[in-house]
Write a structure and sequence with these properties.
Strand order of the largest sheet: 2-6-3-10-7
Largest sheet: 5 strands, mixed
CATH topology: Adenine-n6-DNA-methyltransferase TaqI, Chain A, domain 2
CATH superfamily: Adenine-n6-DNA-methyltransferase Taqi, Chain A, domain 2
CATH architecture: Alpha-Beta Complex
Number of strands: 11
Helix content: 10-25%
Structural class: alpha+beta
Strand content: 15-25%
Radius of gyration: 18 Å
CATH class: Alpha Beta
Number of domains: 1
Shape: globular
Distance between the termini: 30 Å
Length: 227
Amino acid sequence: MPYDGVVHPGDRYHFIRFPKAQSTWGTGTTLADLGLRVSTGKVVDFRARDYLTTADADGAVPLIYPGNLRGGEIEWPREIKKAQGFLAQDTFSHKQLLPEGIYVLIKRFSAKEERRRVVAAVWDGHGPVAVENHLNVIHRNGAGLDRDLAVGLSLWLNSTPLDALFREFSGHTQVNATDLRTLPFPDEATPKGCHSACATASHPLPLCLLRAFLTRGDTPEQQSFNP
């Protein structure tokens, strides 16, 4: 196999990839190309014990853990033996928050029994939110995303084709922010349009999202496409 078959010429991180077959994927659009950033959640709970509380406590904002991501959605509050509220009461605590907005959250670690390495969901709550450190967050310079864009990105991250791409260069269950920065994404118009199509399409993940990544001569039906 030639060198550029295992290290993509356009990959600034120079990941070594081990595709199961001849790869049909290009380097694609990155999050940086979309004007987006990915960061780890700011709340390290053992360093912020005094701020952890219940979801209904006075002055508390939602606190999201990986356990709140379930079935492609964020279930909050949820009984997961973790605090569901975060007290925003001083300078330190306010620095741990994201402003009100729509964000894509991704687990930094997946369980071995999970079908996919990348597990994502959209947060679309009211008011500021605290995100625990075992989650990655896609945002636009610290602010929220357009809803259609966020949902489209989440659909792509949870898809079988993306999972296959991720496994080409990662053999463990950890999903780092750097991993997400190097993954290919649709251009901004594609995920927006695909989410809009969800309301009427019978496919759980619209085919147009996959078409944006197929090279000439391939058809969606030739790919594994189980969301």
